[in-house]
Amino acid sequence: MPDVAIIGVGLHPFGRYPGKPALTMGAEAARLALADAGVAWTDVDFAVGGSYEVDQPDAVVAEIGLTGLPFTNVYNGCATAGSALALAKQQIELGEHRIGLVLGLDKHEGGAFTADPTSYAAPEWYGEMGLFLTTKFFGMKINRYMHDHGITQQTLARVAAKAYANGAINPQAFRRKALSEEEILASRMLNFPLTHYMFCTPDEGAAAVVVCDAAIAHRYTDTPVYLRSVATRTRRYGAFEVHGTSAAIEHVPAPTVDAAKAAYEAAGIGPEEVQIAQLQDTDAGNEVMHMAEVGLCADGEQNDLIAAGATTITGRIPVNTDGGLIANGEPVGASGLRQVHELVTQMRGRAGDRQMPTVPRVGVAQLYGAPGVAAVSILTR
Amino acid sequence: MPDVAIIGVGLHPFGRYPGKPALTMGAEAARLALADAGVAWTDVDFAVGGSYEVDQPDAVVAEIGLTGLPFTNVYNGCATAGSALALAKQQIELGEHRIGLVLGLDKHEGGAFTADPTSYAAPEWYGEMGLFLTTKFFGMKINRYMHDHGITQQTLARVAAKAYANGAINPQAFRRKALSEEEILASRMLNFPLTHYMFCTPDEGAAAVVVCDAAIAHRYTDTPVYLRSVATRTRRYGAFEVHGTSAAIEHVPAPTVDAAKAAYEAAGIGPEEVQIAQLQDTDAGNEVMHMAEVGLCADGEQNDLIAAGATTITGRIPVNTDGGLIANGEPVGASGLRQVHELVTQMRGRAGDRQMPTVPRVGVAQLYGAPGVAAVSILTR
Amino acid sequence: MAGVPIADGLFTWPSDEPRLIGGSCGRCGALSFPRRAGCPRCGASGPVEHLIGARGTLWTWTSQGFAPKEPFNGAIGEGGLGVPWYVGLVEIPGEIRVEALLTGVSEEDLRIGMPLRLVVVPWRTDDEGREVVTFAFAPDPDGQRSSETEEVGARA
Amino acid sequence: MAGVPIADGLFTWPSDEPRLIGGSCGRCGALSFPRRAGCPRCGASGPVEHLIGARGTLWTWTSQGFAPKEPFNGAIGEGGLGVPWYVGLVEIPGEIRVEALLTGVSEEDLRIGMPLRLVVVPWRTDDEGREVVTFAFAPDPDGQRSSETEEVGARA
Ligand SMILES: [Zn+2]
Ligand SMILES: [Zn+2]
C-alpha cells in the first residue's frame, strides 16, 4: 500500500475579510499549496473539501479550473480536516489516484454559532432553556478536570498567554498582540473558570494541502512530510460530551483518546516520540486536557510542564507554535488544515521567527468538536 | 481487494412530516436497514452520512447508539449518495473495516432552495438578476437537447406520466396518484418546455444501506447485491452546467457521461448489460437526457423508446421503477440511497406490485446536481 | 405550583415530588435522559420509562456570562435568569448524570460534590398567557455531599 | 442612457456600444465571463480583460414562470420583468456562450439560432434613488441567424 506524502501547503491567513467570499479565500489557499508543491491543477487527480458555511466547497473549481476531477466535500464540525485528510489518504492508498488537493475554507461573520438543536439530536427544550451552547460544556469539562487533577486557573492563563505570544511572532496570525497572564485572568468571565481571553473566536480563512503517493514525492520536493495515519472517532456512551442532556456514570475516555490510540497504532509511533503538537484549543482548558488525551503527559502533570515552559516553542514539547485557535480564530472547515500547515512548516524548518530550535521529526495534530467527534493525525519527516 | 456487498436497505418514505426531525427519520431508516441485514449496530465498524439540512448527520448516534465508530459526513448536493457510497466502498476495500452503514436524511420544508450565489462561485449580480435558479438551467438544457435531437414535449409528458404511474403502485411513494399526459402538459408552464407536473419537489425522508466485505455477506443474507463501482465527477470546461454565467463554445460531455464511463470501466460491465436504471429525474427532461448520458440509448432514440414503453416496469430497460424523484420528491441527502434501495429491492425480487417480470441482474444508479457534479454506481446480484 | 411543562414527557407534573422521566434499555439496562426512541449505549429500540431519583450531587458546573441566543426563550434579569447564571451536571447516585440549570446558587457557594435536589421552576409566560415551567436543581439542605468531595486543585 | 451598472467590471459603461467584459487566459487562451481571478479551463491565475462581441445568436432559452426569491432585487410587472420572463444562452461566434436575460421577446418569436445583440437596460432604483442598469440581449434585426438553425424536433 502506498505511503502518503504532503508536498505542498497553502494558507489564506485567518481573520476578518468583509465582502470576500469564502470560495475566493479557498481558491487563493489552493493556488498557494499547488505553487508550493510545484503541481499544476490539471495534474491533480482528486480533491476533498471541507466547510461549514459553504455547502459545496467543490464549487471552487469555477475559480481554479474545471478539470472534471472527483471532488468530495466532507463535514465533521471542528474535526472536518481530519475526515478530509483520512479520505485523501485512503484514495491514494487504494492506488486509484496519485495526487490530491485537500482544501478547507470558511467565513463566520461574528458571534457564536446558532443552529437548531434537533439537527444535533438534542431536544427542543434544551435550546429553549439556553443549554444549546458549546462554551458552557467546555467550562464544565475543565472545571471537573481541575477538581480531579489539581489544574489551576493560572495554568489556563499561561496557556492563553503562550498562544498570544506565538501569535505575536507569526505574521499570518489573527491575534498578534501578546497578552499577560494578568490581563487574561482579568478579562470578563464567560464560562467559569474560562475568561474571555481564554477562548478562540470563529473567523474566516482557508488552508490547503497537496498530498501524493510518496513514491513520486521526490519529483516535487526535497522535503516531503509523511502523513503516517489519520483516525477519526465519535463519542462512546459514558463520555461527557457537547450537547449531552445526560451522561452515564460509567466513565469512558473522550473520543480524542480513542482517535489518538488508533492513530499511534496505525503509524507505529508512540506519543513519547512526538516532538511538536497542534491541539484543538477552542479554549485554554481544552489545550490542557487534550495534552493528556493525546498522551503527551499524564493527567495533572500540566501545571508543572506549562509553568516550566515545556509547551513553548523552545520547550520540550511545543504545542500550537503558530498560536493555535486562540491566536488564529477558527474558520471551522479550514482550522485543522492550518494545524497541518504549521506542522509541515516547522518540519521543513521554514517557520521563521517561530521556528523550533531543532527541526522536529514527528508531529501530531488533534481536533475535537460538537457533537463529540475527534480526529488525530500523525506526521513525520 | 475485497468486493463490497449490500446486505441491508431501509427507507423512511419520502414526503412531508411536520415536526419530525430529520435525524429521527434517519434513525428509523438506519434501524430498518440494520434489521434487514440482521446486523447489530454494535457490530458496525464505520458509517457515512449525507444531508443538506443537517450539518452533521453523525449526530444520529445519539438515537441509535454511542458506539464510538468513525462516522464521516459527506455532501455533494444531489450527488451526495454517490460520494457516500464511494467512501464506504473505499473503506471496505482498504480492509480496515468490514461492515458499514451509509445513511442519507433530509428535511426541506416547502419552496425552492435559496442560497448565497457566492457560495457556489457565482457572482452577486447573478443572484440579483434572478438567474441563480436551478430549474431554468434544466429548461435551457432540455430545450437545446430537443432542438438537436428531435425530442418532443410529448416524450417529456410520457416520462412524467410513467413516474406517477409507478408511484401509484409504490406504497412508499410521496405522489401516489396517476396523472395523464394531458394533465401533465396542461399544468402550469414553469420553465419552457417543462411544466409544473414534470418537476420533482424537495421533501423529507431518509434512506440507509448496510454494506460489508463480500467475503462475509453470506453470514447475513442469501441475496447479497454487489456494489461493483461508484464514480463521481465534477464538470469540465465546456460542459453546459447549473449556475454557469458562461459556457465555452468547445463542447465537452456532461459530468454524468464521464462518471458513467469510469463506473462501467471499473465494474467491467457495459451499458448494454444494464437491466434496470435509476436516473436523476429532477424533471422529465433530465431523465430523457440522462438515459443517453449513461449509455442506455443514443441521443434522439428516446422518443421511440419511451413511446414503446421501453422504460416502464415491463419494458426492455425499466427506468425509475419506484417513481423516481418525480413521484418521491427529493430530500437531497437521501435521494440517491432511495435509488439504491429500489435497485436492491428489485434485484431481490421483493418489489411487490412494481416488481419487474424478470428479476434484474445488473442495475445502474445515476445522480446529478449543482454546481455540476455527477455520480454513477453499478450494482449486480 | 401550577404551570405547563416546557415539554411533554420530561418530568412528572403536576406533582408534589416531581421526577425526571428517563429511559431504561430492555437489552443492556443503560439509563438515559430524556427518554429517546433508542438506547444510547447499544442502540436497542424502545427504552422503557424510568423515573430518575430527585436527589443528587454536583459533578461539575460552570457559569454562563452572556445571554444565550435563539432558540433560548426564557427571561433574563428581573424574574428570570440572572447573568451570570449557572448550569451543572448533577449525579444521581447509581443512576445517571443529568445536565441542568442550577437555581438558588452563586459562584461563591458552588462546590463540586454539594447536594442538590430537583425542583420545578417558572420559566416563561407563553403566547396564551400560561405559565410555562421547567426543571432545575437547587441546593439540598438535607442531602449529603458526594463521597469524593476533596478538591485536589485550588482556584488560582 | 445614464445609470449605475449592477456590478463593477461587468460591461463597459457609459457607452454607446457597450461590451461585456470577459477574461482571456494568458496560458491556454480560454475565454470566460465574467472575468475571474483564475482561468476556468487550466486554472492559471490572472486572465486579462477581453471585450466580448456584442452580437450573437440564441443557443438555447427557457421561460421563467415564477418570480425568483432573494437575492433577486429587480422589479416584477409594471416597468420591470414580465412573468413569464425569458433567459437564454447566447453564442458570441468564435468566442463564448453567455447566459443572459432576453428582452423584447415573447415565447412565440423565440427561436434557437435567432440573432441577438447586447443591450443595457434599466434594472431597479437603488436606495439612493439612482437608476441601476444591467445587461440583456434583444433581437437584432440586422443580424444573421446561426448556421445551424434547422430544428430537428417539433414542439408537442
Ligand atoms: Zn441498551
Ligand atoms: Zn487557461
TrEMBL record, chains A, B:
Keywords: Transferase. InterPro entries: Thiolase, Thiolase-like, Thiolase_C_2, Thiolase_N. Pfam families: Thiolase_C_1, Thiolase_N. The keyword Iron does not apply. GO terms for molecular function: acyltransferase activity, transferring groups other than amino-acyl groups. Residues 4-173 form the Thiolase N-terminal domain. SUPFAM superfamilies: Thiolase-like. Residues 254-377 form the Thiolase C-terminal domain. It comes from the Bacteria. This is Acetyl-CoA acetyltransferase. The lineage of its organism: Bacteria, Bacillati, Actinomycetota, Actinomycetes, Geodermatophilales.
UniProtKB/TrEMBL annotation, chains C, D:
Pfam families: OB_ChsH2_C (PF01796), zf-ChsH2 (PF12172). Residues 52-120 form the ChsH2 C-terminal OB-fold domain. It comes from the Bacteria. It comes from Trujillonella endophytica. This is Uncharacterized OB-fold protein, contains Zn-ribbon domain. Residues 16-45 form the ChsH2 rubredoxin-like zinc ribbon domain. SUPFAM superfamilies: Nucleic acid-binding proteins.
